[in-house]
Amino acid sequence: MATPYGIGSVQKDDSAESEDVFRKEFKRYKAKDPAPKLDEVIDFGASRNKKVFPVDIDPKNITDQESLTRLGLLHPSEWRVFGLEGFLGFLFILNPWRKGSQRYWVTRCLRDYPCKPNVTNLDKLQHGVDNVWKEGYSEYRLQQGKKTQPKTLLHKLRWTTLGYHYDWDKKQYHQERYTEFPPDLSQLSTHVAQSLGFPHYKPESAIVNYYGLDSQLGGHVDHQELDYSKPIISFSFGQTAIFLLGGKTKSVKPTAMFLQNGDIMVMSGDTRLAYHGVPKILKPPIVGLLPEGLCEDERREGLHDSMLPSAMEETWEQSALFMEECRINITVRQVVAEGKGFGKRSCDDESQTEPKRTKEAQGS
């Protein structure tokens, strides 16, 4: 059983007529004019917030250092891990990657994961797209910076699912809707989980979200999986997001924090069923600026060649152009309880929401 990191349980308000405080805060941070003040947003890299406290990793949980290095991670003893008062089971790992290694995962998310037989949102918009990046990059490059041009295939890519494919219409997973979960992502998630005290974690499903600078992810609870005892592990790459973490109901005021390139977030315990969302992606301070971790010229430190996509170095310039205005988030979860069969769970309409781009949402 994993250590219940955190102090205090996630807040809950059972009042049927409670105000939707989460939505109010979401709209405040989403606003463009006037832009929200960010002085209350927690920055784990420079935070003096009294709610933030350091978490030590048990050395007994750390095994197979060679695999951790090969996957691009620093040794867990070098990780900066934090908890958040009032959010039992919440963990935040501040960018634990070796220099240059994040490029591998960005490349996988852009060039490999959206390929068939995996499922993307484009399946409903346009049939016959076997390789989104290959078929969409040329058009994207030609229209880069031309705001009056129609959205390209890559602009329209919002998500891809891996392993058990989430059914957005029925709000549930189906046993028969499954493709092989990527072995590299499985190894990465398993090692992170084990290092944090979740020894029997089995990655079975992931949603890769692609956020433009005008994208949001509405407030929701991830409660369609059949095993709540296992954490959701979230990997962030690219531009910075504001993330809201609330309570068991929307009547609880959420806490705002920055999710920056390379950060890893874990929601377990009470926090596993807390409302959360992304109201804003922050524009880089300089147009075309890549976040630290994606722009280094240094060679990758210790990342095994077998983990690299073919010709990644030669094509990184293309990926970098896309990441100048994009955030990628991978959320990994275990769907089925260990030793139990695949069942069904009743769902509500707010269980999962797709990331939406403001202009496109207005047109729908």
TrEMBL record:
InterPro entries: Alkb, AlkB-like, AlkB-like_sf, Oxoglu/Fe-dep_dioxygenase_dom. Residues 345-364 have a biased composition (Basic and acidic residues). GO terms for biological process: DNA repair; oxidative RNA demethylation; positive regulation of gene expression, epigenetic; regulation of translational initiation by tRNA modification; RNA repair. Monomer. Interacts with DNAJB6. Residues 341-364 are annotated as: Disordered. This is Nucleic acid dioxygenase ALKBH1. PANTHER family: ALKYLATED DNA REPAIR PROTEIN ALKB-RELATED, NUCLEIC ACID DIOXYGENASE ALKBH1. Transmembrane segments: none annotated. Residues 202-336 form the Fe2OG dioxygenase domain. It comes from Branchiostoma lanceolatum. Binds 1 Fe(2+) ion per subunit. Fe cation binds at H220, D222, H276. The keyword DNA damage applies. It catalyses: an N(3)-methylcytidine in mRNA + 2-oxoglutarate + O2 = a cytidine in mRNA + formaldehyde + succinate + CO2; a methylated nucleobase within DNA + 2-oxoglutarate + O2 = a nucleobase within DNA + formaldehyde + succinate + CO2; an N(6)-methyl-2'-deoxyadenosine in DNA + 2-oxoglutarate + O2 = a 2'-deoxyadenosine in DNA + formaldehyde + succinate + CO2; N(1)-methyladenosine(58) in tRNA + 2-oxoglutarate + O2 = adenosine(58) in tRNA + formaldehyde + succinate + CO2. Its main location: nucleus. Keywords: Dioxygenase, DNA damage, DNA repair, Iron, Lyase, Metal-binding, Multifunctional enzyme, Nucleus, Oxidoreductase, RNA repair, Transcription, Transcription regulation, Translation regulation. SUPFAM superfamilies: Clavaminate synthase-like. Its EC number is 1.14.11.33, 1.14.11.51, 4.2.99.18. It comes from the Eukaryota. It holds the Pfam family 2OG-FeII_Oxy_2. One of its GO terms (molecular function) is DNA N6-methyladenine demethylase activity. Its cofactor is Fe(2+). It is found in: Nucleus. One of its GO terms (cellular component) is nucleus.
